[in-house]
Amino acid sequence: MGAIYLVRHGQAPAHAYGVGTATGDAPGLTDLGFEQARRSGVLLAGMVPAFDATISGALPRQRATLQGVMAAFDPRPEHVVDADWDEYSVSDIVAGSVDAATYADRAAYQRLVDTALSDWIDGTTTGDESYAEYAARTTAAAQRAADLAGSGANVLVVSSAGTITQLLAQLWQVPPQGWPTLSRAFVNASVTKVISGKRGLSVVSVNEHAHLARRGEGMMTYR
Length: 223
Hints:
His_PPase_superfam; phosphatase activity; 6 strands; alpha/beta; Rossmann fold; globular
């Protein structure tokens, strides 16, 4: 039985979500995000002796998190980039750009995204990618990771809250409109474990973040 460890990316700067203008060499993570990724690597190194395969989406915050996690491991398998693990594009589904003030107001930003996601799922609004296409590529990416996990391998996947919870929603048969609720409380650099066996994928643990929740350290963030 193989295991897939799904890590949400660490804290990312505002430009990662379409707020403001990013320069070509802008980092994928904040300084805190890099530390979150490093701590998740230490956690995982205490759980598995090594990873047989490592995968991330193509987004800078995902690639940088994988590098931070794998700093705790030696040897390190080749980093495979699979863009099907990318998050949906907020700027694609939200009508107009998100200004800095709205992004800074967590409740206002969440309301904006929730409304946009509901319309996107219903097909009321469409962008470069439909909700059905997004769900299908998540399924395909998970199957490729399961194939790598095989009957006894450990696979690391770094993705985003939306895509990780999209997979969980599929495995738990959560209706599409209920999927966004799963991602709201996902912690940056949290760890979710899925096992791959004869009956397919099964969820073992979700959103593990105790390694980031030590009192007074301020390590736990949500975006």
